[in-house]
Amino acid sequence: MIIIHHLGVSQSDRIVWLMEELNLPYQLKWYNRKADQLAPDDYLALHPAATAPVIQDGDVMLAESGAIVEYVCHRYASGKLTVGPAQPNYAEYLYWMHFNNNVQGLFFAKLALGAKASSPEAEMIGKAIKRREDSYFRYLDQRLSVSPYLAGPEFTCADVMVIFNLTSLPLFGGRTIQDLPNAKAYVQRIGERPAYRKAMQIAGPTAAPPAATRS
User: Fold this and answer.
1) In angstroms, rounded to a whole number, what is the distance separating the alpha carbons of residues 148 and 136?
2) Which CATH architecture has domain 2-81+197-203?
3) Considering only CA atoms, which of 111, 136, 100, 118 is closest in space to residue 11?
4) What pTM does this model have?
């Protein structure tokens, strides 16, 4: 059985969501953040990359959301929720699978820039970051004006990968979607999925460590 090493208020909640969507058994091991909001030492020791999420499948310890969702879907769900190269929406699927890291790269760049004293250089970099970030989000809203889900008419792993950036990341200062009507409707649509609701109750940003794990 897959063990999800879940860091509270982190991207590992999407792996819980994925498992619920696929109706696969899993065990949830919860880790609380330290007083400084950083991951505890025992979580950092799980994987050399020292990032969340991390899953454990027998002798396999795997990090990175994109790798994890593909691994789980192909190994345990016969490729369900993925899109293959022969399918017409493969390019869209690939793009939105990688949207997560692009947006979060800009998010962390903004945090680093904000910690520095104001300068002409910092102002120029800040404008470039905002322009790129706004472009990403405008494209997302444009895509959702013609498709109910990011890769096409069906819900896929691309949606699992993206939604954190639209819901949880703004809690830390990430870009909001208040000016993006199609993205707002999309988040509401995702929020009505039973598996998403259950996952957020179990491991979402307002969830508490469970008394027991699911099997």
Assistant:
1) 18
2) 3-Layer(aba) Sandwich (3.40)
3) 100
4) 0.93
Indicate the average pLDDT of the chain: 93
* pLDDT tens digits, 77-116: 999 999 999 999 999 999 999 999 999 999 888 887 775 6
DSSP reduced 3-state for 136: helix
Tokens of 1: 């059985």
Query: Is there a contact between 62 and 2 (Cβ–Cβ < 8 Å)?
Result: no
Which regions of the chain carry the CATH code 1.20.1050.10?
A: 90-193
Q: Are 170 and 163 in contact (CB under 8 A)?
A: no
Burial group, residue 4, by CB count within 10 angstroms (0-12, 13-18, 19+)? buried
Six token digits for residue 32: 């609380």
- pLDDT by residue (tens digit) across 162-195? 999 999 999 988 999 999 999 999 999 999 999 9
